[in-house]
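Kindly review this protein for my students:
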Amino acid sequence: MNSSSFSGGVAAIVDPEDVSPEDNGAVVLEGLRDAAQAGAPTLASLLAVDKNRDLAIFSDADMRAVEAALLVKGGKHFVKCLATGKDRQAKPEELVRQCWIARLLNHYGYPKERLGIEFPITLGR
């Protein structure tokens, strides 16, 4: 499984074996397919997304930014936080958070300094 780009700019997580470039105008990103075959982590492989779910709100650029930040250390998958530069364990929640960070940085133009990750807040007194 890996990320594909569909006509209209909608990004989704799909199994490359189920999609050919002729199907619905889909264009499989060959670099990501090659990376997956070489054993490099991808969003799809780490999220174990079923075919009823996708990340359509995120652009291909957002997802590529997160996939470029994926790394393996000591047999565990990590993602380098796009806001802080810290290595965080690549759990599904963290991967989605990084997609949102990429969207805030790339689409909305937020500066990294304005983003707080796991920022504590006080409710009440």
